[in-house]
Each structure stands twice: as structure tokens, then as C-alpha cells.
């Protein structure tokens, strides 16, 4: 199989959201902290009728319908998620309901979990399967589904929720350049979920930022090594057209790209211009640790990277800013933003993605885009995803209502024997929703 990669995609996020500006006022923090400080516009959240299973049922059904894929044509289904609803039964098995009724139970794959990285692990599994001798000629599907919720406090505005489904196969308009890849994995306690009775993570916010940036540097280093070995020339930011980052909040994405510019400067790579060289020169002797602590370096590198950021990163930021951190779906929602914003100009372009999952696991990898053939074309993917339409038809909630929902969800987490309001008035037709969890913890869903 050649040019294996993503043939098509769809995205779903809850229609319910709060404005970050309203949240600032509600939380009593200084004006601008969430909107400018974190760089976020809105935060989407699941109400009591939605969860990671309903969202993934919705997005997989939609993917199959909109691209007219017969469920029998699917041979592998992989899910990435860090939202634990069951410690044994995978989300994938819930999704099998869609395929069983069409007579297809011959589908490999289960769930992958490690914080926000599970979706990337699932994606690599699926791509590897299509490239392998066990491939049976059918398509794979990768699902990333998460509801990111935090306890009250500074991390809460970095929540979000979404599910993404990607169809995997050969001759893809979004093809992997599998040789260009760098990973960094190590043991850290930056963000983890040791309390199985709570949906909320334990998070060391500052440490998680540093872990993210250190992982980025290391992945970039390995990525560049591999590129240089294979291509016989140095890699620099000018060798790719777009950079897509896992996006817990937009400010970290700005800092990440600035960090890559600083890396190019230190490596003396050709993409750094003279003005940038001059501005970054005072920092060339910093040790690694010092460089993560230096506010002046952060400021200078963000300043010199701004024009490149606007060209190569900004088009990827729409959905993460509007929806919030979607954990496993975050990176792919950023990529979906690029398809939405630039679909007619993307043929032939190289896109570099950086996936980060706390704990920690990270990979930088490369995609090459082609226009492709309908229905698997970049322009059709953008049409099907209908990002603008989905954003426009959302319903704003007041912060009080959001907090109330969070309280209710705290009670519902791990609970049994309840029925939901079954109120699906805000959901668009075709959306799955939770109706009941019975006395044996079995979950039931209906479709609007
Ligand atoms: N106007 C403009 N900017 C402001 C304002 C204001 N009124 N107030 C604060 N800011 C800026 C700060 O200067 C800071 O910017 P900087 O980083 O450029 O200095 C930014 O807003 C955030 O303010 P902090 O005081 O640093 O925020 P705090 O420490 O309260 O929380 C944090 C931020 C740590 C990111 C928190 O939201 C968190 O823990 N989030 C979850 C962890 C996370 O997402 N980590 C990322 C990687 S791991 C993962 O993906 C889960």
C-alpha cells in the first residue's frame, strides 16, 4: 500500500459552551487572563446527556454516512481516549453496535490510553496495519474522543470536549511521511489521574508546561536527525508549510512555535533571519534548564517568530481556541482547522504535527498533502466537517450553568441506577445521547 494516511475525517463537539470572557468575570480573575493570557475564546463541555461514548457514536456514524462507507468495509477500529468510563470494557466495543447491525464483527483494534497521546498511538497502529502483511484490504477508522474537565481552579478554563473520526487507507490525500518521525517518552508526574473515583486529573500546571516544551525540543532534535540522515541536508522550519501542535490552550502553542524558532537559531539552521539572530543572540549560551525558565527568551522568541507563526501556525488554531483542550482530539482538531481554513491551497504541502501526552509520551511526525479524489479530497473533507456551521449553531451557557453541570457530572461519574433528562433539544439531528445507566452500570444511548 502506498501513500497510507487519512482518507477522510469528521469532527463533533458539544453544542454547549461558555465564553472565556464570561468565565473570567465569574471566576473573579483579572480581565484577559483566559482570553489573552491563555489565548482561549470558548470552552465546550458535555451536559449530562453527552459523554465520550455518545460523541464517538455520533462522529463514527456521521463519518460512514457522509462519505458513503459501507460498515462492512471497515477492518480495524482504534480508539484513543483518556476519559475512563470503564476500567476494562473499551469504548471501541460500544462502537461495535454500529457495525454489528450490518453484520460486521470482524474488526480488530481496541482503545489506547496515555493522556492526550492515545489518539496518536491509535493512528499509528492503524497506519501500520494498512502498511503491514496482516492488512486485508479494508479501511481502518481511528477515533479520538475526550471530555476534558478540571476541578475548580486555574486549570478549569483549559477544559473542552470533542470527538474526531478518521478513515485510514492507501492513496490518501493526507499521507504519512513515516520515515520522518521523532519521539520522546519518559516518566513524569505532570498530569495524571490516580483518583479513580474522580474524573478530574491531578495536575502540576507549571511542570506540565515545562515537560511539554522539553518533549517538543527533544522530538524536534530526533526528527531533524532522521530527516538529515535520509535527505542529506539540514531540516529547518522552512522545510514545512504548517506546524500543528497539541493545544491545551493557545498560549502554549505560541510558546511552542517560538521554541522551534529558537531551536533553529541554536542549530544555526538556514530559516532564521538576521534580525532574529540578533534578537536571540543574548540567549545562545543558556543551558537547557535556564532556557525553560527565561522569561526574556520567551518574549524575544515569541516576538521574532510572530510573522512565521501567523503564516504556519495561526490557521491551525481555530477549533482549539473555540472548543478548548479536547485531549486526544486536540491535535487533530487543530489539523481540522487547517483543512477548514486552507483546503484549497494545501495540495503538495508538508505539515508537521506534534503530539503530547502527559506522563509522558510525545511524537513529532510529518504528513504530505495531496488534493485527492472525491469523496476523499481535501476540499470535500472541509465541506463534510462543516466547522463554521457547527461553531455557529452552538448555544452559549452562563458560567453558573456550566458550574452547575460540572457538579452534576461529579455525582454522575462512576454512578449507576439513574436516568438522564433525555433532553436533546440542543443537539442536532443524528446526535447520540445518554438516556440511562441501569443498576448494573450498563449504559444506554438513543439517537436524535
Ligand atoms: N491579561 C493578560 N494575560 C494575563 C492576565 C491578564 N489579566 N493574567 C494572567 N495573564 C497571563 C500570564 O502572564 C500567563 O502568561 P505567560 O505564560 O505568557 O506568562 C498566562 O496568562 C497564564 O497565567 P498564569 O498565572 O501562568 O496561570 P495559572 O498558573 O493560574 O494557570 C495553567 C495556567 C498552569 C496553564 C493552568 O491553566 C493549568 O494547569 N492547565 C492545565 C495543564 C495544562 O494544560 N498543561 C499543558 C500541557 S499538559 C495537557 O495537555 C493537559
Polypeptide structure, described:
With 448 residues, the protein is of the alpha+beta class. Helices cover 39% and strands 22% of the residues. The chain has 15 helices and 19 strands. It has helices spanning 20-27, 33-37, 52-66, 91-100, 118-131, 205-231, 250-266, 274-280, 288-293, 295-312, 318-323, 330-342, 378-385, 387-392, 399-412, and strands at 5-12, 16-19, 42-44, 74-80, 111-112, 139-148, 160-169, 174-185, 191-192, 202-203, 242-245, 350-357, 361-369, 372-373, 376-377, 395-396, 418-419, 432-437, 443-447. The strands form 5 sheets. Strands 5-4-6-7-1-8-13-12-11 form a 9-stranded mixed beta sheet, with helices on both faces. The protein has a 3-stranded mixed beta sheet with strand order 3-2-16. A 3-stranded antiparallel beta sheet has the order 17-18-19. Strand 4, helix 4 and strand 5 (111-112) form a beta-alpha-beta unit. Helix 6 crosses helix 7 (250-266). The longest helix is centred in the middle third of the chain and has 27 residues, at 205-231. The protein is globular and about 65 Å long. The two termini are 38 Å apart. The model has no long low-confidence stretch (mean pLDDT 97). The structure holds acetyl coenzyme *A (ACO). The site of acetyl coenzyme *A (ACO) has 23 residues, from helix 2, helix 6 and helix 7. Acetyl coenzyme *A is lined by residues 30-33, 36-38, 116, 154-155, 158, 191, 203, 205-206, 208-209, 212, 248, 251-252, 325, 358.
Amino acid at each position: 500500500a502506498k501513500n497510507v494516511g487519512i482518507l477522510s475525517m469528521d469532527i463533533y463537539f458539544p453544542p454547549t459552551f461558555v465564553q472565556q470572557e464570561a468565565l473570567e468575570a465569574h471566576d473573579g480573575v483579572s480581565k484577559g487572563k483566559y482570553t489573552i493570557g491563555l489565548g482561549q475564546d470558548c470552552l465546550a463541555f458535555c451536559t449530562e446527556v453527552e459523554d465520550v461514548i455518545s460523541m464517538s457514536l455520533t462522529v463514527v456514524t456521521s463519518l460512514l454516512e457522509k462519505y458513503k462507507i459501507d460498515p462492512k468495509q471497515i477492518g480495524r477500529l482504534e480508539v484513543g481516549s483518556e476519559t475512563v468510563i470503564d476500567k476494562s470494557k473499551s469504548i471501541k466495543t460500544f462502537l461495535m453496535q454500529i457495525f454489528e447491525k450490518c453484520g460486521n464483527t470482524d474488526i480488530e483494534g481496541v482503545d489506547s490510553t496515555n493522556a492526550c497521546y492515545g489518539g496518536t498511538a491509535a493512528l499509528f497502529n492503524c497506519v501500520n496495519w494498512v502498511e503491514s502483511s496482516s492488512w486485508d484490504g479494508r479501511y481502518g477508522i481511528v477515533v479520538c474522543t475526550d471530555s476534558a474537565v478540571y476541578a475548580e481552579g486555574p486549570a478549569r478554563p483549559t477544559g473542552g470536549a470533542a470527538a474526531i473520526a478518521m478513515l485510514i487507507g492507501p492513496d490518501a490525500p493526507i499521507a504519512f511521511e513515516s520515515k520522518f518521525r521523532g519521539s520522546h517518552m519518559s516518566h513524569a508526574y505532570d498530569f495524571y489521574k490516580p483518583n479513580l473515583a474522580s474524573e478530574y486529573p491531578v495536575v502540576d500546571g507549571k511542570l506540565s508546561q515545562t515537560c511539554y516544551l522539553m518533549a517538543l525540543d527533544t522530538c524536534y532534535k530526533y526528527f531533524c536527525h532522521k530527516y538529515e540522515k535520509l535527505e542529506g541536508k539540514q531540516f529547518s522550519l522552512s522545510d514545512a508549510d504548517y506546524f500543528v501542535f497539541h493545544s491545551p490552550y493557545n498560549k502554549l502553542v505560541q510558546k511552542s512555535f517560538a521554541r522551534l524558532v529558537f531551536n533553529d537559531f541554536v542549530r544555526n539552521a538556514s530559516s532564521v533571519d538576521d534580525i532574529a539572530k540578533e534578537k536571540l543572540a543574548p540567549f545562545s549560551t543558556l543551558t537547557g534548564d535556564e532556557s525553560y525558565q527565561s522569561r526574556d527568551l520567551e518574549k524575544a522568541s515569541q516576538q521574532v517568530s510572530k510573522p512565521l507563526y501567523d503564516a504556519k501556525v495561526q490557521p491551525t488554531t481555530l477549533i482549539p481556541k473555540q472548543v478548548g483542550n479536547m485531549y486526544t482530539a486536540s491535535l487533530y482538531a487543530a489539523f481540522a482547522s487547517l483543512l477548514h481554513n486552507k483546503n484549497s491551497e494545501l495540495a503538495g504541502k508538508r505539515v508537521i504535527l506534534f503530539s503530547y501526552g502527559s506522563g509522558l509520551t510525545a511524537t513529532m511526525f510529518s504528513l504530505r498533502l495531496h488534493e485527492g479524489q472525491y469523496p476523499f479530497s481535501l476540499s470535500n473533507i472541509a465541506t463534510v466537517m462543516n466547522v463554521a456551521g457547527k461553531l455557529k449553531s452552538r448555544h452559549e451557557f452562563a458560567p453558573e450553568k456550566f458550574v452547575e453541570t460540572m457538579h452534576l457530572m461529579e455525582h454522575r461519574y462512576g454512578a449507576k441506577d439513574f436516568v438522564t433528562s433525555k433532553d436533546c433539544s440542543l443537539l442536532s439531528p443524528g446526535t447520540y445521547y445518554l438516556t440511562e445507566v441501569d443498576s448494573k452500570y450498563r449504559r444506554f444511548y438513543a439517537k436524535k
